[in-house]
Amino acid sequence: MAIKNPGIHLQLSQHQSIEGLKYQCLTIELTHKDRMINPEDLEHLELPPGIDATGGVVISGRGPIWLYTYLARELHPTAWIACNDPRLGGAVVVGAYSDLVKIGQIIQLEIPPTHSLCPALMVVGPPDSGKSVFSHALFQSLLGENPDIYLQRANWDGEGNYVLALESQAEREGYKRANKGGLTPEFFPYHGQAILQLRRQKKLVIVDVGGMVQPEKLPVLEACSHYLIISSQPDAVESWHEFCRDRGNLTPVAVIFSVLEDVETVQRLEPYLEITCGPWVMGQTKAVPEVLLQRVRSLLEMPNSHS
Q1: Which residues constitute the signal peptide according to the record (predicted)?
Q2: Residue 164 to residues 99, 154, 265: CA-CA distances in angstroms?
């Protein structure tokens, strides 16, 4: 059963059972082409009928924090509530109103056997080349065509998707400073495992790993299948080829020579795309060139790997 408003589609599954727990999945689908919704959409949003309060409910799908919070509040009468995190391969219990589960428990959801490993495209290059801005633009361009695309920020600089969506430069810089972290021994192994989990559930994973060639990034390297270099420094390109292609055995998709001018010049198409284009600066970015989109779209057409 489903209830639909102009921008949000909620789908309730039949009863399922795992680890001895009975539950239903409440799946969110954002239906506008740009996958955007507004807070006022909550006013007329209703839960689908048929929710069994004696079991749990797993909320899944793409949506802002405030939508998840609203749904969790509305589902309060159920035995327990969990939010699916595809990076963990399961759902995290956020509300426990019986002794069947406990807060913070991860319910390992079954992944359909047809989902093996989708491609994972690592976006790399030196600092100040526009990696985060380009990754976000690529993600937004493809998301309208395929909702099963995920952008994983495997960097601690605080420049997440929510920052890039802000209009004010002052706001963006403030959020970056407030959310900037640092490297720990667990950081890249965590992201490597998260990427593998995402590859089992999505059609394409885009990975932004920051601007330094570092041996600590090997867990992320090993979790990816392809790479794309975006560089404002032509002499830095070869070191990334050595790291990604020669050391990581990843397949090159494209090299973008990033410039501040409004330019789009293709240098070559094979064995991988080389293109000069720009600017990749917040507030100034144009559409991703079609030739570049076509190269990345070709990854979506690849058969999933079992390795």
Answers
A1: none
A2: 41, 15, 26
- State the pairing for strand pair 2-4/16-18: unpaired
Tokens for 94, please give them: 């956020």
* In the chain, % of residues over pLDDT 90: 68
What sign results for the dihedral spanned by CA atoms 82, 135, 249, 236? negative
What single-letter amino acid sits at 123?
V
Residue 204 is classified by DSSP as: E
Q: How far apart are CA 52 and CA 227, in angstroms?
A: 45
Between CA 32 and CA 144 the distance in angstroms is: 8
Residue in 215, 242, 217 with CA at minimum distance from that of residue 229: 242
Total-model pTM: 0.78
- List, in sequence order, every residue forming a beta bridge with 23; answer none if it has no partner: 16, 56
Instruction: Give the number of other Cβ atoms within 10 Å of residue 270's Cβ.
Output: 6
Residues linked to residue 83 through DSSP beta bridges, in sequence order: 59, 92
pLDDT of residue 158: 44
Distance between CA atoms of residues 270 and 241, nearest Å? 15
Domains annotated for the chain, with CATH where assigned, are 2-108 (no CATH), 120-300 (3.40.50.300)
The predicted model gives 90-108 an average pLDDT of 94
More confident residue, 96 or 144: 96
Render pLDDT for 44-65 as a digit per residue (tens, 0 to 9).
899 999 999 999 999 999 899 9
At residue 306, the pLDDT reads 46
- If you ran DSSP here, which 8-state letter would residue 156 be given? S
Token pair listed for 248: 């990581």
Alpha-carbon distance of 111 to 128, in angstroms, equals 38
Residue type, 305: S
C-beta of residue 228 within 8 angstroms of C-beta of residue 206: no
> What is the token pair recorded at 258?
């990033």
Amino acid at 203: K
- What is residue 176's three-state secondary structure? helix
